[in-house]
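Entry 14. Ran structure prediction on the chain below.
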Amino acid sequence: MRELLWQIEELNRKQDTWEVLGYVDPSPQSEAVRVGGKEYPYLGTDETLLVGREEADVVISAGSPSLRRKIAGVLGKNPQLHFPNLILTDTNICSDIRMGKGNIISMDCRISTNVTIGDFVFLNMGAVVCHDGILEDYVTLSPDTRLAGNVSVGTGSELGIGTRVMQGIRIGAGTVIGGGSMVIRDIPDACTAVGVPARVIKQGPGEDVYEYQDNCGSRSES
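Output, structure tokens:
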């Protein structure tokens, strides 16, 4: 969350774009978050957003795809909440991309022509998506991840820092690619793959260390 706030500050230095009111979290906290020379207040638990009657823009900053999906599912019950695409500073994005809602495109990202991005996708700093790429909902690309042309990544998959993916590869849904991996062949759904070249080391979805319930009793970041 703090890194994202810093990026918003950098964007606002160039063009005043977003006014950040504060942050919410199910874990009660009383201290403001300080980023640079600015403080951002704690607004309350996520229940504050669920019962709010005024329209508000919300960014879900959780890095975990499964956690992001759970939070979006809960907060989406309040029709007053909107989930804009947060496009930060120093990005190069082709005008013909197609993008859903709730996405975060961090600083120094590059997105080429004819790319399709779903909902609640998180591109961390320096991620690159070349031509004709497809990122389905809730995908996370960690910093310095680079996808060659015509790569598709399935719903809820997470690519670790510095991952490289060769042209035309399909990465399945719910899959984790370990940091520093080189993907040269298709990777199936719901597995973990690591290495150079990347090889599947675990079948089945990984354990999610986070839980998120409708009563907002578990940890999240939003």
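The helical segments are 2-14, 47-50, 65-75. Will compare against last week's run tomorrow.
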